[in-house]
Amino acid sequence: MTNLRQQALDSIRQANHLVFLTGAGVSTPSGVPDYRSLSGVYTKTGMAQPEYLLSHTCFLREQDLFYQFVKQLYHPQARPNSVHLKMAQLEKEKPDTWVISQNIDQLHRKAGSQQVVDFHGSLYDVYCSKCYQQVDAWTYLEDNQHAGCGGILRPNIVLYEEGLEEMAIYQSQQVLKAADVIVIAGTSFKVSPFCQLIYYKSPDSQVIVVNQDDVYLSVPYTMIQEDVVSFFKDI
Ligand SMILES: [Zn+2]
């Protein structure tokens, strides 16, 4: 383990084309709970599954339930943590460093990362589902109805049953093809199609997984079963 850990740290330091694939575990140290833990209060009642609360069907049929749940996902006071900051610093040192994130909280950008693919969209990009005008997130947090046209507002996040942005997929494929080191951090890497991105990697690239819980991949990888904060402080 110690040896593998050292080798993983060396690989990241020596990488020329570095890609981070990040998930909820990178945001929890900033005090952003993942949606599954937040959905507990709804699922306890037996009324709704976490996937339903963030589905297109829920948005269409139960606007209030959807709105009440989504509002809880906003943590505008959250600040980037040492993991976000380390990734941003690595981008300064190695210009071909990218982050592809499942997180919708914009913390990578707040940390200073510029090459970020928001694979599941962003909570801070809100628009009207009727007239498509953009409004700021603060307006949405006060009311989910668009004052301009009466349409229902929503954040530009990818809901269950909805397709991904073509651009996010294309960009992810391109940066993964070019990567020599890929680091999967703070995610169980089970959510599809995010987890399928790994198939776009070049055969020569090295994959390192840093996560508290074990992760299974069908490509060769180095597993570092460790808290992301403790690992990233040693890079
Ligand atoms: Zn509108």
TrEMBL record:
Q: Where is the active site?
A: 120
Keyword field? Metal-binding, NAD, Transferase, Zinc
Q: Which residues form a coiled coil?
A: none
Q: Where is the Deacetylase sirtuin-type domain?
A: 1-235
Extract the InterPro entries matched here.
DHS-like_NAD/FAD-binding_dom (IPR029035), NAD-dep_sirtuin_deacylases (IPR050134), Sirtuin (IPR003000), Sirtuin_cat_small_dom_sf (IPR026591), Ssirtuin_cat_dom (IPR026590)
An example of a GO molecular function for this protein is: metal ion binding
Which PROSITE patterns is this protein grouped with? SIRTUIN (PS50305)
Q: Which Enzyme Commission number(s) are on file for it?
A: 2.3.1.286
Q: What class of enzyme is it?
A: transferase
Q: Could you say which residues bind Zn(2+) here?
A: 128, 131, 146, 149
List, alphabetically, the NCBIfam families matched: PRK00481.1-1
PANTHER family, A to Z: NAD-DEPENDENT PROTEIN DEACYLASE, NAD-DEPENDENT PROTEIN DEACYLASE SIRTUIN-5, MITOCHONDRIAL-RELATED
Protein name (Swiss-Prot/TrEMBL): protein acetyllysine N-acetyltransferase
